[in-house]
Amino acid sequence: MREFTEQELVRREKANNIKSIGIDPFGSRFERTAYSKDLKEKYAPIDHDDFENINDIYSIAGRIMFIRKMGKASFFSIQDKLGNIQVYISINDVGEESYNLFKSADLGDIVGVKGKVMKTKTGEVTIKCLEYTHLVKALRPLPEKFHGLTDIEERYRRRYVDLIMNENSKKVAFERPKIIRCIQNFMDSRNFVEVETPVLNTVLSGAAARPFITHHNTQDLDMYLRIALEIPLKKLLVGGMEAVYEIGRVFRNEGMDPKHNPEFTLMEAYLAYSNLDGMMELTESMYKTIAKEVYGRYVFNWCGNEIDLSGEWKKISMVDAIKEKTGIDFSKEMTVEDALKLADEHGIEVLEHQKNVGHIINLFFEKYVEETLIQPTFLYGHPVEISPLTKKNPNDPRFVDRFELFIGGKEFANAYTELNDPIDQLERFESQLAERNLGNDEANDIDMDFIEALEYGMPPAGGIGYGIDRLCMLFTEQDSIRDVILFPTMKNKN
Questions:
Q1: Cβ-contact 230, 208 below 8 angstroms
Q2: Domain check: are 54 and 101 in the same one?
Q3: Do 185 and 41 share a domain, yes or no?
Q4: Nearest of 465, 411, 471, 405 to residue 176 by alpha carbon
């Protein structure tokens, strides 16, 4: 058992004293009638002298964040979910017993106040306390400079304290649900249906990623936590639902950095009888809708770049983007030997399972192009080797009808004209299996249940996946994914 600090011992003694006078130190129901922000906005325009004719009474509740004790009258502030508001308390208004109870309060305690709204001579909207209610005794003191901790990881480990002490963290925490609700409303307006699909799977498919593996005890069966939402949503297209989407957690057994977390929120959407162009229009419209309806602006500062979401977004093929940067034209027919020679000349390492033209094209893109795509850009025309679930381009089967959305040099979305040919799909799965045998531990399994579904006929369709966390990073202007996930995955403390 840990040792208590001197402050913690004092607080525990105060909790016992509160209990001894018949008050529960950890409180009970309190009827609140107003929030700080609403009161401050409502009464800010009213002059100090006009409050003589105002007798509005409210009940507020929150955490004590500031105390200035001054004998028989004091000021303190309490913080609720919308902000802070000042309270004036006097022994003449609440009586000696309640005032003494207040005087034993510490920063971090949670209290209820019923009182009359007023304004100080300095113009601050204040509640004149008429009834003081102790609700919860905080047994630990709040940190003085929590936001400036040298070990910034403590903010993420103790998010509950971060939300108390850091207004920006609370702001982001409330903005994220607004963004997601805006997305849901937008998709509903397009006649998409939101669905739920399994988190546990027996087949690894839907994306190139290493999975987390778990075990079903009753069935004595190893299972994967899903790495994508794609396959079951496509099965729903086969079933005739035609326009479906899901926003849900997926899990990839990979490293952690400012842009990646092993569990993250993905949204995938599939629209029957659409294609890549339809997904581009859907994506651009959705982003602009969020910008307008949630923020009322189109320009955002993210990772040192000013991102402008207005206007028409750029569209460019992968091979054209590479040609712009390097002069190499990968649209021409090329042997594997020629591609390997180019990679060697440009200092690009090619792993065994990447020794084909398609993978080498992608390696050139990652080295020379990806980080330069700052303003919203639809990058299309990926090699077939890196896109096992995508329909081939009818004019050049070396490439597929796929795009990725890049903003600030990072991928934000991945879209396909969906592959619905079960014969072609099985061949792609078999190629993936061959890659796994060459050392690609992110390659897919052969999903025969999905092949069977496709054999019943899946309509032509467009599909897309969005990284919701990264989308929220852009709109809330946060550089780290840990700032938009309330409880990010953390390393164990030594």
A1: no
A2: yes
A3: no
A4: 471
